[in-house]
Structures are given as C-alpha cells and as structure tokens.
Write a structure and sequence with these properties.
221 residues; alpha/beta; four-stranded antiparallel β-sheet; 7 helices; 28% strand
Length: 221
C-alpha cells in the first residue's frame, strides 16, 4: 500500500496574540489518500484555514509531525518546504489570485516560471482545454467570468502535477451552477489519482466528497 500524500500526526499550532496563547490546532491527526476527496467543515475560527496551511507546508506546527508522501517534512528548511510544495501540493483559493495583466495561459504557467520545464506550456494548454477554456487561452482575467477564473486557478494549481490539491472555499464566490461546474472538475481531478482537500462552509461540497470531517476549537471530530 502506498504512503498517503499528506498526513498530520498529533499536530498542535499555537499563536501568540494580545498577551495570550491561542491554540488553533489541538492534537490533529489527519491523512488523505490518493484520489480521495475530503471536505473539512467547521465554524469561523475553528482552525480550518490553519489546518490547510499546515497541510500545504505554508505554516510549521508548534508540535507534532507533518508527512509528505511518507517523508517527515516537519523540520524542513524554508527552501526545502518550498520545493516540497512545488512537487506535491497545488492550491486553489476563494479569491483566485490571478495576475490581471497576464492571459489565462500565462497565469497557469506562473508556477513553472523559475524552473527549466520544457513541457510546461504544452501541459498548461492541455489543462486549460480540459477545464473547458480552450478558446480563452489569450483572455485576461477581466475578460473571464467568475467560474472561468476559478477554472484557470485550478489549472494553475495542477500545472506542476501535484499529488494533492488544497482548496480554500473554492465555491465561496460562485453561484450554485458555477460552483457545481468547479466541483465536477474536482471529480475529474481525483479520477486521475490526485487527492483533493477543501475547507468550506458550502454544503454542496459535501455532496461530492468521499469523506467530511468537522473541526471545532482546533480538534477534528
């Protein structure tokens, strides 16, 4: 049996603020398997985004361990974490974060910009075609609908062929029809063996997920 692409073991994350220590994650154990779609739900301030940041190696736990493809990534240097993120993790955010002056294709190519990757342009074009944007390659973000922007963001997250896609409220700014289209795309992604983890308030996401976990006060339930 292959190792899970991402795993947390007894992860605690604390922040200092206002003269007190806030425990955002309190002994979290979590793993996602290849091709699995997991939805993480919980009230605001429950620790969802902190959990996503630790999973994506954007933040370091106060204690506990983070494993990437079976390798302990807890004590990696900043440079090593950046490389591991590039190899294993793609991110999709509620706000899209597309560069307004770049075309859809150029936005998708951004994560490959600082590496010698001769196949990147072909991969980026293929991804945009797969998400239904073959006729929008040269369009800038202000020429795209909300759903089209989100699909560009999904293609950008996949251009480095990650093992896991992490999505923070991916349908939060979309109407129901467009949100359904984005979730349908997540279905296609997981069919190719990519794990998908979303944090969300949207009950529609749960209809697509293999598993839904709830986090309250930093603890998974």
């Amino acid at each position: 049996m292959s190792e899970p692409p991402l795993e947390l073991r007894e992860v605690v994350k604390e922040y200092e603020g206002g003269g007190e220590t806030v425990r955002a994650l309190d002994g979290v154990d979590f793993r996602v398997e290849r091709g699995e779609f997991v939805s993480v739900i919980g009230p605001s301030g429950s620790g969802k985004s902190t959990m996503l940041n630790v999973l994506g190696l954007l933040d370091v736990p106060t204690s506990g361990e983070v494993f990437v493809d079976g390798r302990d990534a807890t004590a990696l240097s900043d440079r090593e974490r950046t490389q591991a993120r590039k190899e294993y993790v793609g991110f999709v955010f509620q706000q899209f974060y597309l560069i307004p002056s770049l075309s859809a294709l150029e936005n998708v190519l951004l994560p490959t910009r600082f590496a010698s990757d001769p196949g990147a342009r072909e991969r980026a074009t293929d991804l945009l075609e797969r998400v239904g944007l073959a006729d929008r390659l040269d369009h800038r973000p202000d020429e795209l609908s909300g759903g089209q922007k989100q699909r560009v963001a999904i293609a950008r997250a996949l251009v480095n062929e990650p093992a896991v896609l992490l999505a923070d409220e991916p349908t939060g700014n979309l109407d129901r029809e467009t949100g359904t289209q984005v979730l349908d795309e997540f279905e296609h992604i997981r069919e190719r063996g990519v794990a998908v983890v979303t944090v969300t308030h949207d009950p529609l996401v749960g209809d697509y997920a293999d598993r839904t976990v709830s986090i309250v006060d930093g603890r998974l339930e």
